[in-house]
Amino acid sequence: MTGDLTDLVDLAALGDLARSVPSESTQQAVGYPSLFLLVVFGSLVPVVPTGAVVSSAAVVAIHQTAPPLSLLVVFGVASLAAFSGDVTLYWLGRRGVRSKNGSRWLERIHDHAAPERLGQARERLEEHGVAVLVLSRLIPAGRIPVMLACLLARWPLRRFVRGAGPAALTWAATYQLIGILGGSLFPKPWEGVAAAVVLTVVISTAPALWRRLRRRTAGDARSEAAG
């Protein structure tokens, strides 16, 4: 009988302990590793909107009980993930450059680098060097052409790392600020996340749409001149 009472007390204590654990702890335990993996995956396979992921994580962070600490962790995780993904992709690309048959990673980098963007990246890389890597992380669709230009210029991994570090820090800070802005405008986290996602999508797609519009306008002007 005493053993049964002891077991019941132990179960009650465990239940109280489980209820006392804040939901934030569970969110952080799942959220931070997920943030890291998504950003790394998005760096290796440039189809994941990693900027929106970081902005959304920042929105969630500012609604937690210790926003400064949560934002600092989000910044650290996002920066480390972006840096790790970029360095890993560059290392895989270098293996493709050195091999006779190339590699699927090098082909993937080629596929995501338009010829005109690659030409511009090579010119800027020759003029400004490592600083171009920092800017390429902030320009939508600018990272891959610059990385390919570095591969074609046969930059050693050490030189690429010197630019990839500041680039990752700057990129993470920029998209975290977007998330803070979106989250501060709305009282509910999901509203801030939606605003941050929309804002990052607009930032990512606006330059491409502008270039397409300019090309179409230039083509119409040439057609009218020829006619």
Q: Whole-number average pLDDT?
A: 75
Radius of gyration: 23 Å
- Give me the secondary-structure category: mainly alpha
Give the biggest beta sheet: none
Tally the beta strands.
Answer: 0
Order of helices and strands: HHHHHHHHHH
Give the uncertain stretches in residue-range form. 5-22
Shape: globular
Strand content: under 5%
Count helical runs: 10
- Give the CA-CA distance, first to last residue: 101 Å
| Fraction in helix | over 70%
Domain VTT: 57-179
Transmembrane segments: 35-62, 69-92, 167-186, 192-210
Family: Belongs to the DedA family.
Subcellular location: Cell membrane
List the helices and strands and how they pair.
Blueprint: H1 2-20, H2 23-44, H3 50-62, H4 67-98, H5 104-111, H6 115-128, H7 131-138, H8 143-152, H9 157-185, H10 189-226
Helix pairs in contact: 2-3, 2-4, 3-4, 3-9, 3-10, 4-5, 4-8, 4-9, 6-8, 7-8, 7-9, 9-10
Organism: Streptomyces antioxidans
Main location: membrane
InterPro entries: DedA-like (IPR032818), VTT_dom (IPR032816)
List keywords for this structure.
single chain, 227 residues, mainly alpha, 10 helices, globular
Describe it.
Belongs to the DedA family. It comes from Streptomyces antioxidans. The protein has a domain at about 80-175. It has 10 helices and no strands. It has helices at about 1-20, 25-45, 50-60, 65-100, 105-110, 115-130, 130-140, 145-150, 155-185, 190-225. The longest helix is centred in the last third of the chain and has 38 residues, at about 190-225. The termini are far apart.
Short description:
By secondary structure, the protein is mainly α. The chain has 10 helices and no strands. It has a domain of 94 residues.
